[in-house]
Amino acid sequence: MPVWIGVTVFLVFLMLFPLWSIFRASLWDESGFSLGRYLEVFTNPVFLKAIWNTVVISFWVGVISVVIGALLAWLVTRTDLPWKKPIRALVMASFVTPPFLGAFAWTLLAGPNAGALNKLYRFITGSEDALFNVFTMPGLIFVMALYSFPYVFSMVANVCELISSDLEDAAEILGANKWQTAWTVTMPLALPALIGGFILAFLHSLSLFGAPAILGLPAGIHTITTQIWALFQYPPRLDIAAAFSVPLLLATMVLIAVQKKILGRRGFSTVGGKGGQKRLIRFGWARVPVLLLVLGILSLSVFLPYWILLKAALSSAWAMPLTWDNFTLKNFSFAFFEYGDTQRAIYNTFKLGILTATIGTLVATLIAYITNRNLFRGARYLTFFALAPLVIPGIVLAVGLFIAYTRPPLVLYGTIWILFVAYLTKEMPIGFSQAESTFKSIHPELEDASRIIGANRLLSLKDVTVPLARSGLIAAWSFIFIGVIRELSASILLFAPASKVVSVVIFDLKEEGQVGVISVLGILLLAASFAVILAVQWFAGRDVVATRE
Amino acid sequence: MATVSLHGLTKKFTGMAAVDDLRLEIKDGEFVSLLGPSGCGKTTTLRLVAGFLQPDAGEIRVNDKIISSASTLIPPERRNMSMIFQSYAIWPHMTVFQNVAYGLKFKKLSRQEADQKVVKLLRVVHLENLKDRYPGELSGGQQQRVALARALVVEPHILLLDEPLSNLDANLREEMRFEIRRLHEEFGITTIYVTHDQAEAMVTSDRIVVLNKGRMVQVGTPSEIFDQPRTRFVAEFIGKTNILSGQLQDGNAVSLATDLQIRVAQGPHSTASGEKFVCIRPHNFLLTADESEARALASKGFNLFSGVLERRIYFGDSVDYTVTLALPPVSLRVVTPPSRQFDKGQRVFALAHPEQCVLVSND
């Protein structure tokens, strides 16, 4: 019993304390209660401009993500397109790639002067101009969409797999032609997923910090997140940052509520039982062109960025062709052995990754177990707390934690522990929903059988349930780990010189133009992520890509 | 009003014939079942009739007009048919009312007429109170009724049903069998019904087509199929049966062992001699322990088997016995009413009238 209560209190405290701190800092100061800070946020044209930019960017990111994500999902699930598994793996790779790294790679690809694609364009046409400039609003939207569309993809792919061909056949035999069927049956069934996917992509881009900071700030484009970051620079205006966080928080809450409502009653629950089969649409001769189109899209998010990172990591002058003269390993030796900052950051990142993943999985497992087996009255309300961080953008969470833990009774700022708390909070929903769905699939009677012959609850959990849940929990661990090592938007406000992590160092080195070292660190992050995914697939013998919620 | 005829209908998947040279004439208003084990080609046949598949050879005619052949294919939406799917295929984003009303959108009807038809049909299937529910909020049986109403409301010329009851539990399945037959009698639509459940086919159909490995094995009324199976496959697939092998002696005598000869009904296989199979249904035996009674019946022409009662299972409305014969060393399954009961180990006599001993081929 004490274990359950302890975990519950810990979770509630973890979620409520930073949020409470934000509201307190935005409403009260030494002189008492005041709404002045909100007034300033909503009248100052600089802030209003940032809000407007954020809305415009997120809207277009949502639209483009829906177009790309829905197209790829439909192609992969409902047609006879070849190479479906590799395509899914590449979508997964886009998902795993930290958006700030993608944004950085795109500065090398489509920067106006030295960008590789622009140089290629000049070489082919002999022109003096740049074809692309990624440091613009469209450039920023384009890059952010490349790393947001996997959200739409996974939602739409799930739904397409649920819609059986029978549903369409039923309309045809009653007299509907192909267009009427598509319009009255297929589209309405997919619509909740399209809208839900749009909202997810919108929310994702709303909360991004790295990409807009790397691509937007040089062009003077501020978003809400970069503006909050700017408020933390000297002289810090924490109270304004807190007040500015609240609209972001509210917008996220409203959108999540809307999404839940859309996916509500009618939903896309499958009706009826077995027998629902899918027939694939045949492309015939068009298979190859369609495949090339798909690979073309994925080369924008995966092949080109990875290639330029690899090239930059291996050359002395990244913009030059990769010849023997230009080839070097000094970026690697510099990052791993010579430069103290990167060494410490790598150590911190992996330490935090392993620590957060392990403790996070443990806490998520216990919470999921409590809610699933309803161990005490009101236990199911814990779900709400465990999922609450979904509505808190990383940078808002960081503002709350910063305010909460820089003053007594708990001073964590300056240590890696404030980062640990931030990561634990931020990754709780993913760990929890993984653990939840795992426990749902394990019948309580299996555990009852162990208890009736003498094992207590905790022992039954350890000996029966956890071994059965093993692969689900390993997946939860890996999701948290990957989420932590790529985290930037909360880290950027919470790090101290001794507690820098890799993502922060990449962001800092960007200012110094250390392209080669950044690329090395980026490759390290990607390699670690993919290694974890492959290890999980190998150990747990299941497709992590498919179970992502 | 429609007749359907299949002429040499053939469909191949990756070289294997799923449906092989099917020939069948279905009369107007007739209810025909396609019955067979999974993989026998029955669903493929139905989808060929619906127009979701195109035949590789042969043709399908409705009222003597070709609707499917290797060269022509009228699309499903122009065939005036309705279909009920195994998965029901109820659209989860539409209410019960909207589901049922959908097909009427493609008929030239005023809104009011259409609504009236929908309401009337919902009443027929007892769903009038649930018309504003979404399918996710209905039970399996209710979803099934929505599927029925949706298919019937358009007044199709031909109704196709693809294992519509296989997702229901046993009680509901029995109820829905009668419901389907009731609706057929009410509307008189030409119906093709696909199932692997012989009881379903018996209850609902005017005629049954037994399929195996893509080929038609036997066509007939339920009682013809049950009482006069033509092949061992039909006999064993439909109902419980005893199959005894022996040598055909003359026109209607088969010797099972040196001193056991039985008389069989005249049938299509009674001509050529050689090894033959005799089908006797378990409930067609008379069972007695009284030797004089047995001899008396045997002298009236009944076939007599004597043996030892090996096993006895009481079902309440019947008793299922296993009788082991001395020669040939085989076990007979005998089902009797519970009025006369026998004990394990007892010496008993099983008698069967020659009319109920049917010669079947070994297919």
Radius of gyration of chain B: 25 Å
β content of chain A, as a range? under 5%
The oligomerization state is heterodimer
Q: Which class of the largest domain in chain B in CATH terms?
A: Alpha Beta
CATH topology of the domain at 47-95 and 149-266 in chain A: MetI-like fold
Uncertain parts of chain B: none
Q: How many extended strands of chain B? A: 20
Main sheet of chain A? Answer: 2 strands, antiparallel
Secondary-structure-derived class of chain B: alpha+beta
CATH overall fold name of the largest domain in chain B: Rossmann fold
CATH-assigned homologous superfamily of the domain at 47-95 and 149-266 in chain A: MetI-like
What separation lies between the terminal Cα atoms of chain B?
37 Å
Indicate the radius of gyration of chain A in whole angstroms.
25 Å
CATH architecture of the domain at 47-95 and 149-266 in chain A: Orthogonal Bundle
- CATH C-level name of the domain at 47-95 and 149-266 in chain A: Mainly Alpha
Report on the biggest sheet of chain B. Answer: 6 strands, mixed
Number of helices of chain A: 25
Mean pLDDT over all positions of chain A: 85
What count of structural domains of chain B? 2
- The name of the CATH superfamily of the largest domain in chain B reads P-loop containing nucleotide triphosphate hydrolases
Q: What's the average pLDDT of chain B?
A: 89
Describe the model.
- The complex is a heterodimer of chains A (549) and B (363).
- With 549 residues, chain A is mainly α.
- Chain A is built from 25 helices and 2 strands.
- Chain A has helices spanning 2-27, 36-43, 45-78, 84-96, 99-110, 116-125, 137-146, 149-162, 165-173, 178-207, 210-216, 224-232, 238-262, 287-314, 330-338, 340-373, 382-387, 394-405, 416-440, 444-452, 457-485, 491-494, 502-512, 515-540, 544-547; strands at 28-29, 32-33.
- Chain A has a two-stranded antiparallel ribbon with strand order 1-2.
- In chain A, α1 (2-27) packs across α18, α5 (99-110) crosses α14 (287-314) and α10 (178-207) packs antiparallel against α13 (238-262).
- Chain A is globular and about 80 Å long.
- By secondary structure, chain B is an alpha+beta fold.
- Chain B folds into 2 domains: 4-232, P-loop containing nucleotide triphosphate hydrolases (Rossmann fold, 3-Layer(aba) Sandwich), CATH 3.40.50; 240-360, Nucleic acid-binding proteins (OB fold (Dihydrolipoamide Acetyltransferase, E2P), Beta Barrel).
- In chain B, strands 6-7-8-3-9-10 form a 6-stranded mixed β-sheet, sandwiched between helices. Chain B has a 5-stranded antiparallel β-sheet with strand order 13-12-11-14-20. Chain B has a 5-stranded antiparallel β-sheet with strand order 15-19-16-17-18.
- Chain B is elongated and about 75 Å long.
- At the A-B interface, α9 and α10 of A face β6 and α4 of B.
